[in-house]
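FAQ

Q: What does a record look like?
A: Structure on top, sequence underneath. For example:
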């Protein structure tokens, strides 16, 4: 909604006046903090001169279907970015991940997740660490649904022993088990791939009901970035397909991980 408003050249206060409300309320609607009716969504879309029927239908459906999902349990206890990612994954039509140093979050075992999240500086209080671990494990619900999930993982992430050898074997075995599911695809980029220069392509690409609602999530040293501009989305789609093309096939990737698990 924010992108449509900006494309229409309207300030927040101008759009708010069309609804007889204030800019603060509109900001809450655009950020997803406040609920909004289907009728209001359609009114705003009409004011923004959007003629994309599929996009309008998707936005109206999101307003109608908006519910308090499982992630709401953590509101006020965890950073908003954690909840936003959970909600994106809940509504995803597909999810793609590329990871070079760590196993993707939804594929992590409890031990792996605890060690990764516990490495933060300054150290988290035990109660908050427990919350973050529980939240990360809850995100695995996306793997229990038929939502297509693809992960491209570099060999480095598979070889780094975040825990001890036993924990590493359990983590690799978990990935193998998940990769057997029909809607889950895991591919590996090996160390010995020649001419590879894409190690900066880490991402979580979450597909929306229509392409305009896709979002890329990237973690950085200063927090989590949510990217939804059309130009950037096109760039990350291209990057993902490059990583996919550079990786081993799913069958060879499973063999690779199986061999690695025996070597640990």
């Amino acid at each position: 909604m924010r992108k449509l408003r900006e494309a229409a050249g309207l300030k927040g206060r101008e759009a708010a006046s069309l609804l007889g409300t204030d800019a603060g309320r509109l900001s809450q609607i655009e950020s997803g903090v406040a609920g909004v009716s289907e009728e209001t969504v359609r009114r705003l879309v009409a004011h923004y001169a959007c003629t994309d029927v599929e996009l309008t239908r998707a936005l109206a459906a999101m307003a109608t279907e908006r519910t308090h999902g499982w992630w709401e349990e953590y509101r006020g206890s965890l950073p908003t970015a954690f909840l936003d990612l959970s909600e994106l994954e809940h509504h995803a039509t597909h999810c793609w991940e590329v990871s070079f140093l760590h196993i993707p979050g939804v594929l992590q075992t409890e031990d792996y997740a605890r060690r990764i999240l516990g490495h933060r500086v300054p150290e988290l209080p035990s109660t908050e660490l427990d919350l973050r671990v529980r939240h990360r494990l809850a995100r695995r619900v996306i793997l229990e649904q038929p939502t297509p999930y693809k992960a491209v993982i570099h060999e480095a992430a598979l070889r780094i022993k975040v825990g001890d050898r036993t924990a590493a074997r359990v983590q690799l075995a978990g990935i193998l088990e998940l990769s057997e599911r029909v809607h889950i695809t895991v591919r590996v980029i090996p160390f010995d791939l020649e001419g590879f220069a894409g190690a900066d392509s880490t991402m979580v690409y979450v597909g929306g009901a229509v392409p305009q609602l896709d979002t890329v999530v990237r973690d950085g040293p200063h927090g989590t970035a949510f990217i939804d501009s059309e130009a950037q989305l096109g760039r990350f789609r291209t990057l993902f397909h490059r990583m996919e093309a550079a990786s081993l096939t799913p069958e060879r990737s499973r063999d690779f991980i199986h061999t690695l698990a025996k070597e640990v």
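Q: Is there anything notable about this one?
A: The mean pLDDT is 92.
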